[in-house]
Design goal:
The complex is a heterodimer of chains A (292) and B (778).
Chain A: E1 7-9, H1 14-24, E2 30-32, H2 38-43, E3 51-54, E4 65-67, E5 70-74, H3 90-100, H4 106-111, H5 114-120, H6 126-134, E6 137-142, E7 145-150, E8 155-157, E9 160-161, E10 168-175, E11 182-189, E12 196-207, E13 210-219, E14 226-227, H7 229-235, H8 242-255, H9 266-285
Parallel strand pairs in A: 1-3, 2-3
Antiparallel strand pairs in A: 4-5, 5-10, 6-7, 6-10, 8-9, 11-12, 12-13, 13-14
Chain B: H1 24-28, E1 44-50, E2 56-62, H2 64-67, E3 73-76, H3 77-80, E4 108-109, E5 115-121, H4 124-132, E6 135-139, E7 154-156, E8 159-160, E9 164-170, H5 173-179, E10 182-190, E11 202-208, E12 213-217, H6 223-234, E13 241-244, H7 260-272, E14 276-279, H8 282-288, E15 295-303, E16 309-319, H9 330-337, E17 347-355, H10 370-388, H11 392-399, E18 408-414, E19 417-421, H12 426-437, H13 439-451, E20 455-464, E21 472-479, E22 485-489, H14 498-510, E23 517-520, H15 538-564, E24 572-575, E25 578-581, E26 587-589, H16 590-596, E27 612-618, E28 626-635, E29 642-652, H17 659-679, E30 708-714, H18 732-735, H19 737-748, E31 757-758, H20 762-773
Parallel strand pairs in B: 1-14, 10-31, 12-13, 16-17, 22-23, 29-30
Antiparallel strand pairs in B: 1-5, 2-4, 2-6, 3-5, 7-8, 9-17, 10-15, 11-12, 11-14, 15-16, 18-19, 20-28, 21-22, 21-27, 24-25, 25-26, 28-29
Helix pairs in contact in B: 10-11, 10-19, 14-15, 15-16, 17-19
Classes of the chains: A alpha+beta (292), B alpha+beta (778).
Chain lengths: 292, 778
């Protein structure tokens, strides 16, 4: 559990980091932010970066901020930031506070970053599911310039993204949940803090006592977290009831193509998809105003 | 020197008190010295190259790149030359020799993780860099055998992968089954687990060529046996090797055996003439240190119409992994030797198929054979109760061996000794356990919650442990002139608190403060003999030897004190670290007594110089503590997740030296038991690749998974085999955890017989529920 030799560089600015990455990307230079996945992978000799470019010395990247209807999360914002989010983040902050406690354990959350989780793209990433369900856009920097891409075009497989080797994920732009929407999150893992076996994040726009637009995101079930349009369609115009939730859950179970491995067969994950969606919806419904 | 309020009886009574642990201060102050903390000048660092293949004939080990690295030395089996194999220490079964693991793979690899080469380098990073460049090529000639019930294959030409079938039994089993009103049969399995101590293994060896003397740090569990075997393997006198036990971060049976890595590190030190240090990393620990537990049981019971067991027939398939290590076939042997627990079984026939598979070799892990056997036996009892529509506790009561039958000759052997249950009141403990946990209230609560739609249930596992394994232990107790008491034993400490327990026994006997005692263990240069720490033996064996040595010292100290105090010896009592003349109140300290016994002291007279005594305790039979585990669980029927809500353990330890430490032992053991029942498992794919080599895949319970636990320690059945009545407590927390959890899950889901294997993972339970409800067998 000793990593292979690597070089280490502390950039002063993001531009400096991008220049250094452009030089070293072909040999395998990588960006270090929280390091909670990369460093263990190096210790296990699963990852062999030629050089680590450590963003931790770059100022101004550690605080999220609201810009219009968007929550901007720069590259060094730690998971733990969302334990007690800024009230300005509104319902989005509340949702993220309920999500964040499922991410590993307290010490890891002090160090690991939101953007790092998106860059690592583990199928069980809570933040990848959050970003996917809310429709985040990602901001990338390289010596060639900056670009923004929707999250749906970012993750292209288990632990795989469309990032070019010379690009740095500098920030995520998360649309804030509109006022009056309901949200819920439910995760199943083997133990507290383990990787999710399955999880769902839902946002329901309410149109009176009917569901308007629904966002139903599913993580840990397929290789890529994604929204399930069949489940969303099943809820549109329906009352928020256990019956409509069961219908949506069944639609998701029919629609998913679950991963299968030696420990967890696809059949387990398919049933779990329905369970976590139903429970996330039920949790969202607890935020409905009590019937008068 | 006069005490106004003179005691007429001893005040100090350390046995039975929950005093704080002597060993904790360095551990909590960061002053511990574990083997990884130790360094010797000029040391080299070793790294083991391990097979990435589960099976195959070695065609090439490419070391060229590593050989070219500066300061790097690489040994393969070929370069090493002939090395004697590590012998067995714990079996009388013969014919196992061909199956012993070589220190480096010879001709074939047989499991992923098998050492195929060792690299020595100036720095541990370089050692790992070099090791990574070494490639092992194999020719896959046979697919790996991964199931102990699969037909045995060929280990070597003419030698099968079933080294032995151990058979045990007595009585006319066939007749019993022919006459039975009911026959109940179960097919059960336990998963592959291991102890996973917080600190992985390590070794640091130094060869003093001038003195011809080898030192090895990092030993534990069996330092003297390991020293003697190393001496034989290296052709050295045992006087030329010393093993030293530093602080040890847990062992649980898997740590401290003589492993290939220990031999390689010593050979490195001797041949390279430089100290060699090796510290195992977690990933290699998961595939290199002993595994345990993986068994399949086909068990049948013949029962009469009233629920009395007439006979049990048992077929065990024991998954030993790729080689036979130091324990021989001990775990398979004791699994069937101790299977019957607390029950009267008039006829018994058992056969243990001890079989090799392409996995990490297996041996003992805390409650070996009893965690598995208690699961099997208690599942069987529950199934019989279900068949007869009888209360499962009443069924157990009907079959308990009674107090009047003690000591009870089982007619079986285990750990090379006859099983004679020395003492016990099983029925009485069951009643106390029910009262202690509030059995009736728990049942009512579970029933009410089930009626409200929850899946909540309660399960019980009754068990008999074994402890105090002999054959012998030697202790030397010395009182220094400052009154400090040194106790030297050949037993070992893996962190279990033995220093405190032994100090309490010595202090109690000598009338001294237990904090004045310093217990030295695991050092072959301090005492000639020792049997180490395993099999819940230390408090019993070292404890009784300590009591004997301390008793002799007590009498000699009192004799000297009587002269110093001008008193009759019968008027002198030792208490509080001093000897007091009860007639006058005058006293002298133990230190003053020791000074008076100095070889040149004029007061000594003809008395033996110094204040030091040695005593042996020999013991041919184990003793048998016992208890009950009671679990309350809630099952999430959709996800298959089980939450253990409450847990109670009642345990009769004979005589509790330190109740708080016993509770700690039981609580820690329970964490491992619950891990084995619900979470932990070494899994392999169809090619024999291990799938559980990190803590993300081998799931141990954390504090978040531990329930509220209530522990009841009883002293109703002291052992008649030693004067203090001591029994051990190291394994009680593990033993019946699988049994109780399985029963509780059955109850929660109101499906008797649902759980047939451990661990009960969510994935297993999800699939098993669907299968059970479709009417399928396990």
């Amino acid at each position: 559990m000793k990593p292979a030799p690597f070089a280490y560089y502390r950039p002063a600015t993001l531009e400096d980091a991008a220049a250094r990455l452009a030089d070293g990307a072909d040999e395998g230079a990588m960006i270090l932010a929280g390091g909670q996945s990369l460093v263990p992978m190096m210790a296990l000799r699963v990852a062999y970066p030629s050089e680590l470019i450590d963003l931790n010395t770059v100022p101004g990247l550690d605080t999220p901020r609201v810009e219009g209807n968007t929550l901007v999360i720069p590259a060094l914002v730690r998971h733990a930031t969302f334990h007690t989010p800024d009230p300005a983040f509104g319902p989005t902050g509340d949702l993220m506070a309920s999500v964040v406690r499922h991410i590993a354990h307290h010490p890891i959350r002090q160090r690991g970053t939101f953007c790092g989780s998106l860059a690592h793209a583990d199928p069980s990433s809570e933040w990848a599911l959050t970003a996917t369900t809310l429709g985040a856009e990602l901001e990338l920097l390289s010596v060639r310039g900056t670009r923004r891409i929707p999250i749906a075009d970012w993750i292209d497989g288990a632990m795989s993204t469309t990032r070019e080797p010379d690009e740095i994920l500098t920030a995520a732009h998360l649309p804030l949940i509109p006022p009056g929407s309901l949200s819920g999150f439910y995760e199943v893992s083997r133990r507290a803090g383990d990787f999710a076996l399955g999880m769902a994040l839902v946002v329901l726009g309410m149109d009176g006592d009917r569901i308007g637009e629904a966002s139903i995101g599913l993580g840990g079930i397929e290789e890529i977290p994604r929204r399930i349009p069949e489940a969303e369609a099943a809820l549109q115009g329906q009352p928020a009831t256990p019956e409509s939730f069961a219908t949506a859950a069944q639609a998701a179970m029919d629609a998913v193509d679950p991963m299968s491995d030696a420990t967890t067969p696809a059949s387990y994950r398919r049933d779990l998809a329905g369970t976590v969606i139903r429970r996330a919806l039920a949790q969202a419904a607890t935020r409905l105003p009590a019937p008068v | 020197m006069t005490d106004a309020t003179l005691p007429n009886a001893r005040r100090s009574a350390w046995i039975g008190q929950s005093v704080t642990r002597l060993e904790d201060r360095p551990l909590v102050a960061g002053l511990g010295r574990f083997v990884a903390d130790m360094d010797r000048p000029r040391q080299l660092h070793a790294r083991i190259v391990r097979s990435p293949h589960a099976t195959g004939r070695i065609t090439d080990i490419d070391c060229a790149e590593a050989d070219a690295m500066p300061g790097v030395t690489v040994w393969t089996a070929e370069r090493l030359g002939e090395v004697p194999r590590i012998p067995f220490r714990a079996t009388k079964i013969s014919g196992l020799e061909p199956y012993v693991q070589p220190v480096l793979a010879v001709e074939r690899v047989r499991y992923v993780g098998e050492p195929v080469a060792i690299v020595f380098a100036e720095d541990p990073y370089v050692a790992e860099d070099a090791a990574e460049t070494i490639f092992v090529d194999v020719e896959d000639d046979n697919p790996p055998i991964l199931d102990a019930r699969a037909a045995p294959g060929t280990f070597l030409p003419g030698i099968s992968t079933e080294p032995v079938v151990v058979e045990k039994g007595y009585g006319d089993v066939e007749a019993a089954f022919a006459a039975a009103a009911h026959v109940v049969e179960l097919d059960l399995a336990t998963g592959r687990h291991s102890g996973i101590p917080m600190e992985p293994r390590g070794a640091l060896a130094e060869w003093d060529a001038g003195r011809g003397h080898l030192d090895l740090w990092g030993a534990t569990k069996r330092p003297h046996w390991n020293r003697d075997r190393l001496a034989e393997m290296f052709g050295l006198s045992p006087t030329c090797i010393d093993l030293h036990e530093p602080h040890v971060g847990g062992g649980f049976g898997i740590r401290g055996e003589l492993y290939p890595e220990d031999v390689l590190v010593c050979m490195g030190a001797m041949r390279l003439r430089r100290p060699v240090k090796w510290v195992e990393d977690r990933r290699e620990h998961m595939m290199a240190a002993n595994h345990s537990r993986e068994q399949q049981h086909l068990i049948r019971a013949a029962v009469d119409a009233d629920g009395h067991i007439l006979a049990i027939d048992e077929t065990l398939h024991h998954d030993q992994g790729a080689y036979v290590r130091t324990h021989g076939a001990r775990v398979a042997d004791m699994s069937i030797g101790l299977l019957l627990g607390p029950y009267r079984v008039p006829a018994y026939a058992a056969r243990a198929h001890f079989r090799l598979t392409a996995k990490t070799p297996a041996a003992t892990y805390r409650a070996p054979g009893r965690f598995e056997g208690s699961f099997v036996r208690e599942r069987l009892m529950d199934a019989i109760a279900q068949r007869l529509a009888m209360d499962p506790l009443e069924l157990r009561r009907r079959n308990f061996i009674g107090t009047s039958e003690m000591p009870y000759q089982r007619g079986l052997t285990a750990l090379e000794s006859e099983v004679v249950l020395d003492s016990g009141d099983y029925d009485g403990l069951l009643t106390k356990a029910q009262d202690f946990c509030g059995w009736n209230d728990m049942q009512a609560e579970a029933a009410a919650r089930r009626a409200a739609g929850e899946a909540v249930g309660i399960g019980l596992g009754f068990f008999v442990e074994k402890s105090g394994l002999g054959p012998s232990e030697l202790v030397r107790v010395t009182i220094a002139t400052d009154g400090e008491i040194e106790i030297v034993t050949g037993a070992a400490s893996l962190g279990q608190g033995m220093e405190t327990a032994i100090a309490q026994i010595a202090a109690d006997t000598l009338g001294a403060d237990y904090t004045a005692c310093r217990v030295i263990h695991g050092q072959t240069d301090r005492i000639t003999h020792g049997w180490g720490a395993h099999a819940s033996r230390v408090t019993v064996m070292t404890g009784e030897a300590t009591r004997r040595a301390a008793t002799e010292l007590h009498d000699r100290a009192r004799d000297m004190a009587a002269e110093l105090l001008d008193a009759l010896p019968t008027d002198v009592i030792l208490d509080g670290g001093r000897a007091t003349n009860t007639a006058t109140g005058d006293h002298v300290t133990l230190g003053q007594i020791a000074a008076a016994l100095d070889p040149v002291s004029p007061r000594r007279g003809d008395r033996q110089p110094g204040l030091s005594a040695e005593a042996w305790f020999h013991n041919t039979h184990m003793n048998y503590p016992y208890g009950a585990h009671i679990a309350m669980v809630a099952v999430d029927t959709e996800t298959g997740r089980t939450t253990v809500e409450r847990y109670a353990i009642s345990y009769d330890v004979g005589r509790a030296v330190n109740p708080a430490m016993i509770e700690g032992q039981i609580l820690g053991g329970l964490a491992q038991g619950l891990g084995g029942a619900l979470l932990e498992e070494f899994r392999y794919d169809q090619d024999g690749q291990p799938l559980s080599v990190t803590f993300a895949d081998y799931l141990m319970p954390s504090s978040a998974e531990m329930p509220e636990v209530a522990i009841q320690i009883l002293e109703d059945a002291p052992s008649p085999l030693n004067p203090l009545g001591l029994k051990g407590s190291g394994e009680a927390g593990v033993t019946a955890a699988g049994a109780a959890i399985a029963a509780a899950i059955d109850d929660a889901l109101q499906r008797p017989g649902l759980v047939t294997r451990l661990p009960v993972t969510p994935q297993y339970l999800h699939a098993r529920l669907a299968q059970f409800d479709a009417g399928g067998d396990a």
